[in-house]
Amino acid sequence: MFKILRYLIFVSLISSGYYLFIFEYLNISEKYIFEEEIIKKEIVEDKKEIIREKKEEVASPNIKKNIDKEQFVEKRIEILQGDTFVSILEKLNFKQKKIYEIISKTEESFDLKKIKTGEIISVFENNFGEIKKIEFFKDSKTIISINLDKEINLNVRELAKETFIESKEYTIIESLFSDGIKNSVSPDILIKIISLFSFDLDFQRDIRVNTVVSISYEFDEIIETGRLEYKDIKYASIIIDGKQLEYFKFITDDGYTDYFNREGKNVKKSILKTPLDGARISSNFGMRKHPISGFNKMHKGVDFAAPTGTPVYAGGNGVIEYVGRNGGYGKYIRIRHNNGYKTAYAHLSNYKKGISKGVRINQGDIIGYVGNTGNSTGPHLHYEIIYQNKHINPLKLKLPSGKILEGDELEKFKEEYKIIYADHLSLLYE
Q: What separation in angstroms does the CA of 216 have from each of 322, 412, 430?
């Protein structure tokens, strides 16, 4: 009896233990499953939050791009040889009607034929790839914006600039130009120095080692682009073997920018015999057999053979009297000078920007470029000097001297050159 009772107690204990084990196991499983569900829900919620945040991140720039035009994607297109504004618009897949509207609107303010090879056109696209704006430089400090919204609007914007004066001094070891570059002088300024002193110096023979060059000049910095635009030389001095040549900028009473020494004598002769660099004479003044017609005919100027595109300089201070095509002369410019002289330039390939009838120019300014237009057998410049309506031989011309300042004009110049020189020394040794 006792054995049976002990057996029953043992079975009872085993059964109770098993029951408790099963109960706790199920309880733990349910808890785990419940916690797992919570975790899954939290993960799902986290994912939803992340997705929502990402959607907001994506949406925000799109909105900003549509509002803030500076956020548009800019594509820069370089104008290549043979390109026109029309051909560029065609490559951008504008329809012909739209192209006509853009061209018509733009040419109200700007002649699109003046856009040249190498210049850049900026195209601005929104995030849908739609072109909303086209921009290009009218000149170094003016931007033309064509806004292409519901209507085509043109905006001509002048860029802000700051004007500076800089002074430099260096000693020539190799050449005026190469040593100038080594001393951080702009090539634009170096060319102006050479032009300024070309009346007094032969740069091949006169310049020696240890020649000292001292200059002061103006330049503008375009704030938005950082571009530097070099302007006039204010003061220039070259000292060779202890002898000094120096000139100061002065605007004369008749409105010309010119250069004078301390005594008020002009650096320049009134008319240049040769209005371009590095050219050879291909045909002289006088009677000759015309190379095209074959007849003997008076050749009223001198021909200078030079490559197409060689810059042509104004022979003297004056006013543009004629610019345009002129029969067999092709593209042609004539300048009226104050001393009874006129100069003419024929067979040009093109004109310098800004050259038009009535424009006042200074001696040495670029007015055009050598070409082969009109009755011409090759690229050259036909140059004429006319005095009191009679053609004279440029090479035999006894050049009248440049202007000499007198009276009140001389006194005004003396006051100005002292200020220029003091400023030059201050900048040089500050």
A: 35, 20, 14
- How close are the terminal C-alpha atoms of the chain, in Å? 125
Q: Are 285 and 394 in contact (CB under 8 A)?
A: yes
Helix and strand tally (H, E) in the chain? 6, 22
Establish if 407 belongs to a structural domain.
no
How many independent structural domains does the chain possess?
A: 3
Question: Six-digit token pair at 30?
Answer: 């349910």
Over residues 354-399, the pLDDT tens digits come to: 999 999 888 888 999 999 998 888 899 999 988 888 888 877 666 6
186 falls in which pLDDT band (50, 70, 90)? very high
Of 404, 403, 384, 379, whose CA–CA distance to 394 is shortest? 384
Neighbours of 315 (CB within 10 A): 27
Tokens of 89: 């618009």
CB-based contact 365:321 (threshold 8 Å): no
Are residue 173 and residue 83 in the same domain, yes or no? no
Where do we find the tokens 């004066």?
165
Q: What is the pTM of this model?
A: 0.52
Does an H or E element contain 220, and which? strand 211-222
Under a CB-based contact definition with an 8 Å cutoff, are residues 258 and 266 in contact? yes
Q: Which residues contact 414 (CB under 8 A, 6 or more apart)?
A: 262, 264
Tell me, rounded to whole angstroms, the distance of Cα 143 from its chain centroid.
11
Asked if 151 and 167 sit in the same domain, the reply is no
Range 333-368 burial, b when 16+ CB lie within 10 A, else e = bbbebeeebbbbbbbbbebbeebeeeeebbbbbebb
Q: Which CATH number does the domain housing residue 180 bear? A: 3.10.450.350
Any domain includes 390: yes
Residues 293 and 391 in one domain: yes
Mark whether 150 and 170 lie in a shared domain: no
Structural domain of 245: 161-260
Q: Please tell me whether residues 292 and 384 are part of one structural domain.
A: yes
**Domain assignment present for 16:** no
Q: Where are the beta strands (DSSP E) in 284-379?
A: 286-289, 296-299, 302-305, 311-313, 318-325, 331-336, 341-351, 360-361, 366-370
pLDDT of residue 131: 85
**∠ CA(84), CA(160), CA(139), 5° rounding?**
25
Query: Within 13 Å, how many C-alpha atoms sit on residue 223's CB side?
Result: 6
Q: What is the mean pLDDT of residues 324-338?
A: 90
259 neighbors 269 (Cβ within 8 angstroms): no
